[in-house]
Design goal:
Elements: H1 3-15, E1 23-30, H2 37-44, E2 48-57, E3 60-68, E4 77-78, H3 80-83, H4 90-99, E5 103-107, H5 113-127, E6 133-137, E7 140-144, E8 153-155, H6 160-170, E9 178-180, H7 185-188, H8 192-201
Parallel strand pairs: 4-5, 8-9
Antiparallel strand pairs: 1-3, 2-3, 5-7, 6-7
Length: about 200
C-alpha cells in the first residue's frame, strides 16, 4: 500500500509502449489527500489513472489504483499545492515530464527550496542523459520532454527512491542502463525491482 512503490509501477505502465492496450490494478494503495498527490499530478498530465474500491482504515484512505497506457503525456505547470503532497515521488513526476510533449514546470514549496535543491540538481544531471532538457531554478525544475528516452549511466547517490526511478527508466528506455550507488533499495522497497521486471516482461 506504499504510494511510492505504487507510483513506480504506475509510471512504468503509463510510459512504456509495451503496456499499450494493457491495464494494471494495484490493490489497497494509500491515497490520503496529503500523501498521494503524485496520481493527481499524473492525471493532470493526461495519464489514464482511476481509483476503485475506496475504503478507510484507521482514519486513512486506501483504494485500488488502476492505470492504462493511453497516449503521450502533456506538459503542465504543477504548483506547490499539489507537489507538496508527493515530495517523495517528485523524481517520478520529473521522469513523467521528461517524456511529456512540451515544457513542464515542477514547483516545490518555497520553504523547502534550499533543502530540496541538491535533489533537483541530481535529477537534472541524471535525466539529461535521457535526452530530455532539464533546468534547475530556485523553485524546482523546468523540463522539456522527448517522446523516447535514452538509457544512461545514472548515479542514485544512495537514494533508494532515485534508484527505483532509474530502474523504471531501464525498462523502457533506448539502450543499456547502468545504475550506480543504489543504496538500500531492497530494504526500503523489498522485492519491488523484481516486481517491476516481472510486470514489464508479462
Amino acid at each position: 500500500n506504499d504510494p511510492t512503490e505504487a507510483c513506480a509501477l504506475v509510471i512504468l505502465s503509463i510510459l512504456s509502449p509495451a503496456f499499450k492496450n494493457k491495464k494494471i490494478t494495484l490493490k489497497n494503495v494509500l491515497v490520503a489527500a496529503d500523501r498521494a498527490g503524485a496520481f493527481s499530478a499524473l492525471r493532470r498530465m493526461g495519464a489514464k489513472i482511476d481509483f476503485g474500491s475506496r475504503h478507510e482504515r484507521y482514519g486513512t484512505a486506501y483504494a485500488d489504483v488502476i492505470s492504462v497506457y493511453d497516449k503521450r503525456l502533456s506538459s503542465r505547470r504543477l504548483a506547490e499545492d499539489i507537489l507538496c503532497t508527493c515530495l517523495e515521488e517528485y523524481p517520478f513526476i520529473a521522469l513523467a515530464a521528461s517524456t511529456a510533449d512540451g515544457e513542464s514546470i515542477l514547483r516545490i514549496p518555497d520553504s523547502l527550496s534550499k533543502e530540496l535543491r541538491p535533489r533537483c540538481e541530481t535529477l537534472a544531471r541524471n535525466l539529461k542523459q535521457t535526452g530530455a532538457s532539464i533546468g534547475v531554478y530556485d523553485e524546482g525544475l523546468v523540463v522539456r520532454g522527448r517522446e523516447e528516452l535514452d538509457a544512461g549511466r545514472f548515479d542514485a547517490e544512495n537514494d533508494p527512491v532515485l534508484g527505483l526511478m532509474f530502474n523504471v527508466i531501464s525498462l523502457f528506455s533506448q539502450g543499456e542502463t547502468t545504475i550506480e550507488n543504489l543504496g538500500n533499495i531492497d530494504v526500503a522497497f523489498p522485492g519491488i525491482v523484481n516486481k517491476l521486471k516481472e510486470i514489464a516482461q508479462s
